[in-house]
């Protein structure tokens, strides 16, 4: 599976998912949702969810073409995700309802801003 590659050159026109850090245009999040965590984030067709679960505040862009064999994808914890463009650091946290859903599913939330180092 692969995600749409953003066509905008201006990074402020792009948004990064706060959970997986994939970078897409807002229209792509609205059209297809998040290719990695749509079941939890529920971004497809929801401008409000896109505004609260994604951000324009991110640093660095990593192109992941072969996530399963990429050292960088393993380091960024994106090796099991879709091919696409990912932010190296994402500023912000997921909403409390999403964090509660992750906890219910037994998934540990690790912020993408590098505050929770392994």
Topology:
Layout: E1 15-17, E2 23-24, H1 26-32, H2 38-41, H3 47-53, E3 54-55, E4 58-64, H4 71-75, E5 84-90, H5 96-104
Antiparallel strand pairs: 1-2, 1-3, 4-5
Family: Belongs to the SPT4 family.
Keywords: Centromere, Nucleus, Signal, Transcription
Main location: nucleus
Keyphrases for this structure?
118 residues, alpha+beta, Transcription elongation factor SPT4
At a glance:
The protein has 118 residues and is of the alpha+beta class. It is built from five helices and five strands.
Main beta sheet: 3 strands, antiparallel
Mass-distribution shape: globular
* Elements, N to C (H/E): EEHHHEEHEH
Average of pLDDT: 86
The residue ranges in which pLDDT falls below 50 over 5 or more consecutive positions are none
Q: Can you walk through the features of this model?
A:
It is a single chain. With 118 residues, the chain is an alpha+beta fold. Helices cover 27% and strands 18% of the residues. The chain contains five helices and five strands; from the N terminus they run E-E-H-H-H-E-E-H-E-H. A three-stranded antiparallel β-sheet has the order 2-1-3.
């Amino acid at each position: 599976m692969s995600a749409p590659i953003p066509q905008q050159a201006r990074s402020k026109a792009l948004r990064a998912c706060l959970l997986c850090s994939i970078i897409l245009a807002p229209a792509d999040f609205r059209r297809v949702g998040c290719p990695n965590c749509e079941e939890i984030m529920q971004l497809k067709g929801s401008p409000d969810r896109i505004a609260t679960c994604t951000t324009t505040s991110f640093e660095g862009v990593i192109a992941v073409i072969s996530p399963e064999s990429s050292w960088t994808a393993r380091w960024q914890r994106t090796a099991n995700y879709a091919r696409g463009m990912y932010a190296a650091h994402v500023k912000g946290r997921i909403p409390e309802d999403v964090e509660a859903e992750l906890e219910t599913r037994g998934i540990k939330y690790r912020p993408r801003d590098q505050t929770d180092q392994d």
